[in-house]
Specification:
This protein has 297 residues and is an alpha/beta fold. It is globular and about 55 Å long. It has 9 helices and 12 strands. The longest helix has 25 residues.
Length: 297
């Protein structure tokens, strides 16, 4: 878990990290979040002389932001957690905004990161899975039911691996950092090898790594072209673990997307700027937006 005190200008005033501790079960995770938030608030009072005036929290899975409920998260094992109300109570009535982790990270990238100046962008972090955030004029489009941007579940290989969602050949089964880790561990014969090791092997010219990497880039390009056909973004922002490979990823990815484009306008394809602080910063922006909404109301 990553948490921060965030100023009105989006600056990180203080940052802290703790283990999620998901092995202790869903209820313990919720208690960890509540305790972490309370400790952060206490730090602000001690070191800045005042309490945080609002709180933002971003969680994975399916999120009902209007109700303030973490509906479902497979990796965390929870269902229908009234996280906003629980946090508000723990923080002494401080208003709380709840958001989806990828959309919240996209909000930060759009306002203060790689999306600045772009009226339309699509933010795609490549991590354990793949999701996306659709940026429109400084806001993130959540969709009618809060499911917008789930590009990882666009089918790019109908005969590909079975996905946890129940479909076959979803983009995240081939192009996520977790998928590359699995493929490289198998190809290299090293069960401890991961996606970062694969990227290094690609840079050194290992043909096995080059084949694994090319397969992932091809699947990623297929999904991204579907996205840009539907959304027509001005900028594609790629983040997450795979993006840390730099031009080892971006050079072939830009070429693969360009090869697939026919009538579509080719967007800029750029790395995310905020790294793994995007979620913290985005949660802070959600909190400030909440206050702005309350004031205007």
């Amino acid at each position: 878990m990553k948490a921060a005190l965030v100023g009105t200008d989006g600056a990180l005033l203080y940052e802290a990290r703790r283990a999620t501790g998901r092995e202790r079960g869903p209820d313990a995770i919720v208690e960890s979040i509540l305790g972490f938030a309370a400790d952060l608030r206490a730090h602000g009072i001690e070191h800045f002389g005042e309490s945080a005036v609002a709180s933002g929290v971003a969680v994975p899975g399916i999120v009902d932001a209007e109700r303030g409920t973490a509906v479902y998260a497979a990796n965390l094992g929870w269902r229908d957690v009234p996280l906003r109300d629980l946090l508000c109570a723990r923080l002494g009535g401080v208003p709380v905004a709840l958001g989806h982790d990828v959309r919240t990270g996209g909000l930060a990238e759009g306002r203060i990161g790689a999306g600045r100046g772009a009226d339309r962008f699509f933010f795609v972090p490549l991590g354990t899975g793949i999701a996306g955030a659709i940026g429109i004029d400084g806001t993130i489009e959540a969709g009618a039911h809060g499911y917008a941007g789930e590009i990882g579940h666009v089918v790019v290989r109908p005969d590909g691996p079975v996905c946890g969602c129940g479909q076959t050949g979803c983009m995240e089964t081939i192009a996520s950092a977790a998928a590359v880790t699995r493929a490289w561990a198998a190809a290299s014969g090293d069960p401890e090898a991961d996606a970062a090791d694969c990227a290094k092997a690609v840079a050194s010219g290992d043909p096995r790594a080059v084949a694994v990497w090319a397969d992932a880039v091809d699947a990623l390009a297929a999904g991204l072209v579907t996205a840009l056909t539907l959304l027509d973004p001005r900028r594609l922002i790629i983040g997450g673990g795979l993006a840390e490979a730099g031009e080892t990823l971006f050079t072939p990815l830009r070429a693969a997307v360009e090869e697939r484009v026919t009538f579509q306008k080719l967007p800029e394809i750029v790395p995310a700027a905020l790294g793994d602080t995007a979620g913290c910063l985005g949660a802070g922006l959600l909190a400030w937006d909440l206050l702005s909404t309350e004031v205007s109301a």
